[in-house]
Amino acid sequence: MQRSSRRDFLKAMASAALVPLPAFAQGGGGRVIVVGGGFAGATCARAIKKLDQRLSVTLVEATQTFTACPFSNNVIAGLRDLKEQQFGYDKLAADGVELVFMVASGIDPQGRSVTLTNGARMPYDRLVLAPGVDMRWDALPGYNAAASERIPHAWKAGAQTLLLRRQLEAMDDGGLVIISAPPNPFRCPPGPYERASLIAHYLKTKKPKSKLIVLDAKDAFSKQRLFQNAWKELYPDLLEWISLSAGGKVTAVEPDSNTLVTDFGRHKAAVANVIPPQKAGRIAELAGVTDRTGWCPVDPMTFESKQQPNVHIIGDAAIMGGMPKSAFSANAQAKVCAAAITAILRGQVPEEPRLINTCYSLVAPGYGISIAGVYRPKDGQLADVEGAGGVSVLDAPRATRALEADFANGWFNTITAEVFG
Ligand SMILES: Cc1cc2nc3c(=O)[nH]c(=O)nc-3n(C[C@H](O)[C@H](O)[C@H](O)COP(=O)(O)OP(=O)(O)OC[C@H]3O[C@@H](n4cnc5c(N)ncnc54)[C@H](O)[C@@H]3O)c2cc1C
Asked: For residue 290, how far is its CA from the centre of ligand 1 (angstroms)?
């Protein structure tokens, strides 16, 4: 990040700490249900309970163990154990959040209730949907849920992460690995390029005759110059990026032969990783809060749906203007949403927030780069605060890259401790 923008960023961080907390009113209470206990939902449920003990807060989450995506690229590259990605919900229960481990299968926004897969109906005053993303199985001919058991997306951490890891381990030295990167918007904009980097590191150190190609549906990507400079330095003959204009967009997948098809040719991989186009988690569609894009438009002051009253959407599922879909963003949005909901339930008006995002990426062990931004509501969206934020300096020494890798580790430990610890 350039010096002046670093200063602006720190200034904005100070103001972000001033995200308005509603003054406590007498009496009242209310029932809040949060669906989805990832970075957004778990943060929000906990924050609401901390802001007002009198509110009843229930978290509906499909699984008892959350598996985090950030740092899952390290698992794929053999640098980390999947267990280090996994977290439970005991501390949320200790804070007074009621836990229901079940899939929410329906929402009745008019009757204000959530239906669970066992048929139970739970009433709410305010509902928070934080279901993350689902894959668009209809967007890429040949690539559906069954095909992903053969060609993993590994864009939800867990079994898919391990499948891709095992395929890389089983591949002969000299094999061709292909990653297909999706069009915008999608979960974690720098994620495919961090993945390419760390897989390249694995190949360079363990299978040096191999090659990696990234087929991209875009002509530009997050932290592009930083990534490409690092690739030139670290993986010059190993990693090739093929942009949309150069014929990189994958138009079909043939899972039986591990082949990715573009308008310009057919690429047969030893190991393929298709990251398909995405949309908001299915429950958002069922609640009627998605628009034609498949994502959820929200009021950036409160994260309340623009389509259904009393329903708030946070995290990857929401349309957040300039704010990227990241765990850092999800956590920040969750805190603002929690403050807004407690204010609304007390009859108060939420104040205008500032939100921050920072995304670290590892290009190799001990080699980190980052991008940061500050956002505020503007014209019904979250817009960049100009002059705040920035990216890592292009020609920084290795010591700076090592420091950023440490910051990345520190960030992961801090956010997971705050959300689940
Ligand atoms: C490879 C990779 C690397 C990444 N690296 C970073 C990084 O370095 N930094 C960063 O900030 N972000 C990173 N991200 C992005 C980050 O993982 C997401 O932005 C973040 O997880 C979004 O949080 P969320 O709460 O919206 O969704 P999630 O964290 O996916 O949580 C959604 C939860 O909702 C639950 N759920 C869904 N539907 C239902 C239902 N109907 N009923 C009950 N429960 C339901 C799911 O089980 C899940 O637990 C990365 C992502 C990937 C794929």
From this structure: 18
